[in-house]
Task: structure prediction
Amino acid sequence: MFRGAGIALLLAVGVTLSGCVSTEETPSYYQNLESHSAQIDASTVASMISSYRSQKDLPPVTVDPELMQVAQAQADGMARAEDVNATRKGDLTLSVLMKNAGQGDVHAANNLSAGYRRWAEAFSGWRDSPKHNAVMLDAEGTRIGIATAYAPGSKYKVFWSLVVAGPR
Result:
């Protein structure tokens, strides 16, 4: 009889303790993007930037599929070159990519960076940098595209592009 009661007690304790272990995943803004398969959660980015903008009485931003492609082209180009400056000339400039995406003369600005492993880190770094912060708080911005690219041989590992554009 004691043996059965002991097993029942162990099962009860096990069930109780299993409730203490969280099975929730890491929030997407803390996801490590240091791999080829990792993808930034664009809706989380738009939500965080919109919330930040609302504190400054600015309109929210939405994710735009064409701007996502522009951002991905820039991030991929930087990763291939292992250099953020790769986007400053040729086919990777924002103006060329925007034109090729059919965006015409729409107002656009971007943040380019490397080295941040998580969206939370990039957001904090950009918020603390006057030039990067100005892009996130661009009063004309209503749409965004965000992308990362991984370059394992680079000292930076993860390259970032955020495109903020006005309405079409």
